[in-house]
Amino acid sequence: MKKWLLLATVMVLALLQLSWPEFLVFFHTRPDLLLIFVIAAVFYLDLKSALVFGVLCGLLKDVFLPQSFGINTVLFIGWAGAIRLLGRQISTEHDLIRYTIVLIVAFLNNIIIGLQTINIGNYIPAGIFLRNLIVGALYTAALSPFVFKLAKKITA
Amino acid sequence: MLKLPRKTLINFTVILSAVLFLSYSLIHLKNPVQKTFKPQLSLVSLLKREIGGLIFYHRNMVENERLRGAAEALRSRLFDSREIFLENNRLKSMLGFKQRSPLRLVPARIIARSPDSWSSSATIDKGKNNGIKRGMVLISPQGLVGRVAEASDNTSKILLVNDPSLGVSAIVQRSRQEGLVNGTLGSNLIMRYLPKDADIAVGDLVVTSGLSQIYPKGLLVGKVINVGSDLSGLNRYAVIKPAVNCSAIEEALVIIP
């Protein structure tokens, strides 16, 4: 039952991300709700389930992107594993630490996807690159408390 | 001949005169009397209203709630009809364009947007079943919208004109100067590979050149808003405001070659 609820939440978050209202788009950036959910899954579920949700969220995101390979699927699985490893080294019980982790992961995720976009020959002005990198990560981190709360309620 | 007693006749005349006098006086009395009584009447009416309000408090409360609900419903209906009105205008304009245009066009609706900030793509509600194939061009009555990146049976992924991976061979309409227009992920496009002495100025219109065989010739891409030199100083570039607002577009027409 809990798993079905989590699945439904993933679907709702994906739908929300795909039809994110224009008035909530700040500086042409939108938050990565699916990334937040994957990170929340690492904190509130066992590693196996978190990885499954990582694959699911990554696939959902990749399906709607023009890139042909599943960069987000790979990255989401990587982040889930990395955060679990990090949890063994430092305490990740405090909410603020969790939000900081979201900020760092969103920032790194943006760097990788941004650099990959440039690497395939696309031209992105430096200002827009930095804007997407910084504002995108901050926006994602700012919305993480809501997604965390939702994930916590469902998994409780 | 009818004979009336004298007394009756006098009485009738007196009463008639009195009535006439009164009615005449009333016209003149009306205003001052009303003016005098106005404050008192207002006070009484206020008291009556307040007492009525206190007595019928519950009834008014229920009625207020009902009216609030009705107002909300009407507001929502008004909003819906405004949306329908705007949609109707857009569709009419597209239909007019479709009928005027010599190209074979399939109208499509944008149903989803890019899930991240690193690409400017969207999903349309038409796919292979509607004759859509990869590489087909999308336009709107305003100008070039983008290109189909992938087509499935019922939907297609499209790259909007401001996506950095979309390159459009274009010319300046006035001087026929060629260049390559790319998206920047921002609200403007960039026209690159312009020679140092390129004849291009702010306000010039940029249209597709038709050289790449992908985009039909003469589709409006946008308007030049800034011209500059690149870091090497060998080439110039132009910043172009796209004719189509990619973040607000809801419908587009796919060109079937």
Secondary structure layout plus pairing:
The complex is a heterodimer of chains A (156) and B (257).
Chain A: H1 2-18, H2 33-44, H3 47-63, H4 71-89, H5 95-119, H6 126-155
Chain B: H1 6-55, H2 57-100, E1 104-113, E2 121-124, E3 137-140, E4 143-151, E5 156-160, E6 167-172, E7 178-183, E8 189-195, E9 205-208, E10 220-229, E11 235-242, E12 251-256
Antiparallel strand pairs in B: 1-2, 1-12, 2-5, 3-4, 3-12, 4-5, 6-7, 6-9, 7-8, 8-11, 9-10, 10-11
What does this structure look like?
The complex is a heterodimer of chains A (156) and B (257). Chain A is an all-alpha fold and 156 residues long. Chain A has helices spanning 2-18, 33-44, 47-63, 71-89, 95-119, 126-155. In chain A, helix 4 packs antiparallel against helix 5 (95-119). The longest helix of chain A has 30 residues, at 126-155. Chain B is an alpha+beta fold. Chain B has helices at residues 6-55, 57-100, and strands at 104-113, 121-124, 137-140, 143-151, 156-160, 167-172, 178-183, 189-195, 205-208, 220-229, 235-242, 251-256. In chain B, strand 1 (104-113) and strand 2 (121-124) form a beta hairpin. The model of chain B has no long low-confidence stretch (mean pLDDT 84). Chain A binds chain B through residues 14, 17-20, 22, 25, 28-30, 32, 34, 61, 64-67, 72, 110, 113-114, 117, 120-125, 128, 132, 136, and chain B through 112-119, 121, 123, 149-150, 157, 159, 163-165, 182, 184-187, 190, 192, 247-248.
